[in-house]
Design a protein that fits this description.
The protein is mainly α. Helix content is 44%, strand content 11%. A three-stranded antiparallel beta sheet has the order 1-2-3, with helices on one face. A three-stranded antiparallel beta sheet has the order 4-5-8, with no helix packed on it.
């Protein structure tokens, strides 16, 4: 029997001595024999089901486990690693650092989450921090450190960003004219091709096919906090894509390549003054000046991507087509650009009329009778076919003599061949 009583200073207690699957002994103490017996039975059942958790494993703190987790994530991209380091340092560890992983409860996570919001941290940042903590603790579950993830706040990891503004076609042209000629195509390609700034800054001459009218997006540029520039593949496989260049940009793009880009295949399309990387800080200063000049002080450069993709959605592009153009692996992001607007609804209505008018009226009226012969079905109006008008009170009754509730139900019986 592994439950044994003993006398303690506050009275009799019951010790449960067990061994884990690895052979190591562990002990828990309870005030009643019933509690001790139940614990013993639960531990044996967990081992049988393969759900047993080593009690000692959960003694590691959140700070220790998250540091180990980061050190094992060699797959993280440089900017992602910087983001995770910042979220842990700024928003997760100040409150949770010294709590043992095995002691962290859902109520602790809820208190931490509420404290961030009450402190005025932006909801998008709070969602990112929550997702990071949940991911770290899910690894703890996978590693057998804890039995279940205490991050159980419904929808807390969903980012609900405010709708970003978009520019009109005229505003895009004014913004392009407000920057120097060397960077004008940077604005136009962001707006009409939907490329991210990092994708544009990594673009090289060999990635532009003027004859085929395509941009080949195969890499992106990151500028880290220490000002190092890192080049790597897009975030997902879908990010590697070919983007069709709108025809009205081909001539200006060819002129840009001739005037501002070195002849080598690997020459940067948007380089700094000395031919190296265009620093984001330098470009951001130029962008701020341009948007102030045209009266759009709140328009971010990334909003040009949103503008271009909204315009593309307005042309009737499908979700799959938008996904391919944007470089998104899932439809959720592409759906954000498919806004339901009154103007779009009128365009849909007009397209339906064009479709209806382009079809032969006879092809819409003609159905097949049981003998395979074509017959006219009187569903347009009685005025068009007076010989088939409803002049008999019995017409349209069913086999029991009662009136059909749907006057077109007789039509349905004539539409199918047996």
């Amino acid at each position: 029997m592994s439950v044994s009583p003993r006398e303690a200073r506050k009275g009799r207690v019951y010790d449960v001595r067990l061994r884990g699957p690895d052979g190591r002994a562990y002990k828990r103490t309870f005030r009643t024999r019933k509690e001790a017996t139940e614990f013993e039975a639960n531990e044996i059942a967990k081992r049988t089901r393969g759900e047993w958790i080593d009690p000692a494993a959960g003694r590691v703190t959140i700070g220790e486990f998250s540091g180990e987790w980061m050190s094992h994530r060699a797959d993280l991209r440089p900017r992602t690693r910087e983001l995770y380091d910042w979220l842990l340092r700024k928003h997760v560890l100040p409150q949770l650092r010294d709590i043992r992983v095995g002691k962290l409860q859902p109520v602790d996570v809820r208190a931490w989450h509420a404290e961030l919001l009450n402190r005025g941290v932006g909801p998008v940042t709070v969602a990112k921090a929550y997702r990071l903590l949940r991911t770290v603790l899910q690894t703890a579950v996978t590693d057998g450190v804890i039995a279940r993830n205490p991050c159980a706040i419904r929808a807390a990891g969903i980012e609900r960003s405010a709708e970003r503004p978009t520019a009109t076609v005229d505003e895009v042209d004014r913004l392009a004219s407000a920057v120097d000629e060397r960077h004008r195509m940077l604005v136009l390609l962001a707006a009409y091709c939907g490329l991210r700034l990092g994708e544009l800054l990594a673009l090289r001459r060999s990635r532009i096919d003027l004859d085929g009218g395509l941009l080949h997006v195969v890499e992106t540029q990151h500028e880290l906090a220490d000002r190092r520039t890192v080049i790597g593949p897009p975030k997902t496989d879908a990010g590697r894509r070919d983007v069709a260049i709108p025809p009205h940009l081909l001539a200006p793009l060819e002129d840009h390549l001739r005037r501002f880009v070195a002849p080598e295949d690997d020459a940067l399309v948007f380089a700094g003054q000395k031919g190296g990387w265009l620093r984001r800080s330098l470009w951001n200063a130029k962008w701020r000046a341009a948007r102030e000049k045209v009266g759009l002080p709140h328009l971010r450069f990334h909003d040009l991507r949103h503008t271009g993709n909204t315009l593309a959605a307005g042309t009737g592009a499908s979700t799959r087509e938008l996904m391919n153009r944007l470089g998104h692996a899932s439809p959720e992001a592409a759906l954000r650009y498919q806004h339901a607007t009154p103007d779009r609804d009128f365009k849909i209505a007009a397209s339906l009329s064009e479709l209806a008018q382009s079809r032969s009226l006879e092809s819409l009226r003609t159905m097949a009778n049981p003998d395979g012969c074509a017959i006219d079905v009187p569903w347009q109006s009685e005025g068009e076919h007076p010989e088939l008008a409803d002049t008999h009170p019995d017409q349209g009754t069913n086999e029991s003599g009662r009136r059909e509730s749907n006057s077109r139900s007789q039509l349905g019986k004539l539409m199918f061949c047996r």
